Description:
alpha+beta, 3 helices
Amino acid sequence: MTKAELVDEVARTTQLTKKHAEIIVNTVFDSIVLSLKAGEKIELRGFGSFRIRQRGSRLGRNPKTGEGVTVPPKRIPYFKPGKELRDLLNGE
């Protein structure tokens, strides 16, 4: 499902205009991103949680030259599905 399809679904389900539905979807996504940037964990009961994982620096390779390159540390977003979502997907 794309973001546009999600906006269409929200508009259809809530009987709002696409413009209003797009504002709602963008607000939810922006809130998630801002919370993750601030280092907060987001928990959506029954759906899952979003967290940030720290990746340390490591030695990588330049594929063209084979030369070793230091890859800097970074923060990676991580989604962990909740039990209810896992059960729904697995038909339990």
